[in-house]
């Protein structure tokens, strides 16, 4: 088996574990402080993903209008990279807000 596939499986496994932790943390009941931590982390993650997808759409629109065919403008965003980025952002903001608000 190729080392690239092994690395991809390891990365996918780590992302899956963090994703499950993210879903569990969202569904976990808690007091108001816990809800605020989750709301802040979710909001920041949502805003980051929306801005990233918006910028990607604008770049593809500009590349289509001006017929640009360089590798920079023809980058295809994969679902795994979006999921990984979202998971990492949520995990970091959750830990930051938990430490900041004391949960």
Give the topology, please.
Blueprint: H1 3-27, H2 32-65, H3 79-101
Question: Would you give an account of this structure?
Answer:
This protein is an all-alpha fold and about 100 residues long. It is about 80% helix and about 0% strand. Helix 1 packs across helix 3. The radius of gyration is 17 Å and the shape is flat. The model has no long low-confidence stretch (mean pLDDT about 80).
Relevant terms:
103 residues; mainly alpha; flat
Coarse shape: flat
Quote the beta fraction.
under 5%
The unreliable regions are none
Q: Quote the distance from N terminus to C terminus.
A: 43 Å
Helical fraction equals over 70%
Q: The biggest beta sheet, please?
A: none
Secondary-structure content class? mainly alpha
Rg computed from alpha carbons, rounded to a whole number of angstroms: 17 Å
Number of strand elements: 0
Q: Count the helices. How many?
A: 3
How would you state the average pLDDT, rounded? Answer: 82
Order of helices and strands: HHH
Short description:
With 103 residues, the protein is mostly helical. The chain has three helices and no strands.
């Amino acid at each position: 088996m190729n080392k690239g596939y092994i690395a991809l499986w390891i990365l996918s496994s780590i992302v899956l574990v963090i994703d499950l932790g993210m879903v569990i943390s969202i569904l976990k009941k808690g007091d108001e402080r816990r809800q605020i931590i989750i709301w802040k982390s979710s909001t920041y993650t949502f805003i980051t993903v929306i801005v990233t997808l918006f910028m990607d759409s604008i770049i593809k629109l500009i590349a289509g209008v001006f017929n640009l065919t360089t590798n920079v403008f023809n980058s295809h965003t994969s679902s795994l990279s979006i999921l990984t980025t979202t998971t990492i952002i949520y995990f970091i903001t959750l830990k930051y807000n938990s430490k900041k608000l004391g949960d």
